[in-house]
Prior knowledge:
The chain is of the alpha/beta class. The protein has two domains: about 1-85 and about 175-290, P-loop containing nucleotide triphosphate hydrolases (Rossmann fold, 3-Layer(aba) Sandwich); about 95-175, no CATH class. The protein has helices at about 50-55, 80-85, 100-110, 120-125, 125-145, 160-175, 190-205, 220-225, 240-245, 250-255, 265-290; strands at about 10-20, 25-35, 40-45, 65-70, 75, 85-90, 180-185, 210-215, 225-230, 235-240. The strands form two sheets. The protein has a six-stranded mixed sheet with strand order 6-7-8-3-9-10, with helices on both faces. Strands 2-1-4-5 form a four-stranded antiparallel sheet, covered by helices on one side. The longest helix is centred in the C-terminal third of the chain and has 24 residues, at about 265-290. The radius of gyration is 22 Å and the shape is globular. It starts with 11 loop residues before the first strand and ends in a 14-residue tail after the last helix. The relative contact order is 0.15. The protein binds adenosine-5'-triphosphate. Adenosine-5'-triphosphate binds next to strand 2 and helix 1.
Amino acid sequence: MTTTTTTETPVLTATGVTMRFGGLTAVRAVDLSVHPHEIVGLIGPNGAGKTTFFNCLTGLYVPTSGKVAYKNTTLPPKPHLVAKAGIARTFQNIRLFANMTVLENVLVGHHTRTKEGLFAALLRGPAFHRAEKASTQRAQELLEFTGLTPKADHLARNLPYGEQRKLEIARALAGDPGLLLLDEPTAGMNPQETRATQQLVFAIRDQGTAVLVIEHDMRFIFNLCDRVAVLVQGEKLTEGTTDAVQADERVIAAYLGTPFEGAPGADEIAEVEAAEAAETAGAAENAETATPPDTVARPEDNQ
Ligand SMILES: Nc1ncnc2c1ncn2[C@@H]1O[C@H](COP(=O)(O)OP(=O)(O)OP(=O)(O)O)[C@@H](O)[C@H]1O
């Protein structure tokens, strides 16, 4: 975990963000800052307004009132301008281009950073080719970073669920954001995938992108975050270190239920380590009984 350097200009400053849908106030006067090198969690019960708040931050919704700034510059509520400024996001429901390859999906994400305009693209001159080469190189780096290089040419729709989530993250990183918003990145993942996602988020932070993450998996949140903000019925109930939030009676009453006992994540770590040990033992056993590589199995061998 890093220590927050509060003197640095925040990558996100949301001030008094309110979002009303008719008579329903989904988000009410929420203030939140995220600093460079921070991982901040946003938690709260179903319907608390977390995704609505993300949508206000990224320009998908125009807040009823309040403002959102990136590095002290107020953002217009337009998704492409927010992305261009330096805020990227993933969605609760995966939104990939299913019939494009893994590499192509990341290349699409890089276009917010490409300066070449329509004419350069139409003329296909040297500047266009240089930009295209740089985009491909960056996309390949991101596939390496997220462990998806072997799947570069696969169609996105053919990836297993956990890898589709990774690809969403790779695509979001392709715009070289200063802040990445993750909406339930481990939803539907098994403990091993969740742990891999945790390591990936740490690596993203270490590379210089701050992270704001919505998640219902509290062990994931408390293992990962430097700070946590709690939304309840659209309002920010509290905000603080993971220890302070876990111990807050109001958070326990409104959301957590019972406080954690022992180190958060200990059960998951034990479960993942047992699964990894079983996998290693299985692999060793298979290696002993495997057909030598230069031997072609005859059909009658399989009967
Ligand atoms: N486009 C919309 N129109 C009307 N009401 C909406 C809209 N989007 C969200 N809401 C309402 O706003 C409230 C907050 O919803 P939101 O999805 O932001 O909560 P959440 O904290 O993200 O929930 P969850 O954890 O279940 O994803 C809910 O009552 C929801 O029904």
